[in-house]
Amino acid sequence: MASQGTLLITGGAGYIGSHTVKHLLAQGERLVVLDNLVFGHREALPLDQVTFIHGDMSDAELVDQIFCDHQPEAVLHFAAYAYVGESVTDPLKYYRNNLAAPLVLLEAMQRHGCRRFIFSSTCATYGNPVHVPMDESHPQAPVNPYGASKWMLERVLRDCDHAWGLKSVFLRYFNASGCDPEGQIGEDHDPETHLIPRILMAAAGEIADITVFGTDYPTPDGTCIRDYIHVNDLASAHALALGYLRGGGSTEAVNLGTGRGFSVNEIIQTAQAVTGKSIPVSYGPRRAGDPPELICQPAKAKALLGWEAQHQDPREHIQSAWNWMTGPKKGHYAE
């Protein structure tokens, strides 16, 4: 896909953002990355290939200057806080960062005539499943402020479409996982709460064990089932969504997942096979708000964007994450 103009990537130094930056650069795109580095890593970006701006999207003067200087033709918005538990105990932090701050960005887009927006949304906007697999018509009833903040921004974007013609794609991820197969970038959260990296941290001896929350769910082995989507597949979906909007596409919500579910126990067993290590496990009670099963219905992504997950086997996700954790960077970027 030939570049048609500069793209502004918010949160491009984070986990999913940096993988998408790498994918877009390989397609010849010109990128400006805005990141406050609260959770992102400057070292995750090829600074000789992108224009990097260290700043916050809530800074109206800075954002307006970016639009004046670079005239982006589209925005890919990744910047958000994403710790569900923290969102429950500190909801205002999440509404300020995930909802209020993007309004500054949208106001700049409106002033400068930028009318394409790709939003890193989440299946957490659905809340507890009414049916599985979950398609885009599933009711949206988020059960925590994180999911609610994403759902509210989706509503804002629809209203902006009606008011001034902004066209958006809301990409509702299921469980992002895996790392760049080339080992250049990876997943490095602090604190780390995602299941696969924590399992691998237990395998590497970085933590004492992996805690399984709940073994009495109505699933075949009693543990929760989730749909794991490789981060490189998420990156390709963003590029295809960009092409869709460039082609005149309308505002749409699109689920991203494989359509296959794997239990916590199955992921642990797969990780043991990949690493060749025994993984210590402890068991705890269910966590509030954890539904037994979350599985994506990805048919719309294929029909609308021509997208389909290429990494369907969780072994691939785990292997790429293990390679990152044990590779030259040892799973962490240099300080």
TrEMBL record:
Signal peptide: none annotated. It comes from the Bacteria. GO terms for biological process: galactose catabolic process via UDP-galactose, Leloir pathway. InterPro entries: Epimerase_deHydtase (IPR001509), NAD(P)-bd_dom_sf (IPR036291), UDP_G4E (IPR005886). Its EC number is 5.1.3.2. It catalyses: UDP-alpha-D-glucose = UDP-alpha-D-galactose. GO terms for molecular function: UDP-glucose 4-epimerase activity. Pathway: Carbohydrate metabolism; galactose metabolism. The keyword Kinase does not apply. CDD domains: UDP_G4E_1_SDR_e. Keywords: Carbohydrate metabolism, Isomerase, NAD. Residues 8-257 form the NAD-dependent epimerase/dehydratase domain. Its cofactor is NAD(+). Belongs to the NAD(P)-dependent epimerase/dehydratase family. Homodimer. This is UDP-glucose 4-epimerase. It comes from Prosthecobacter dejongeii.
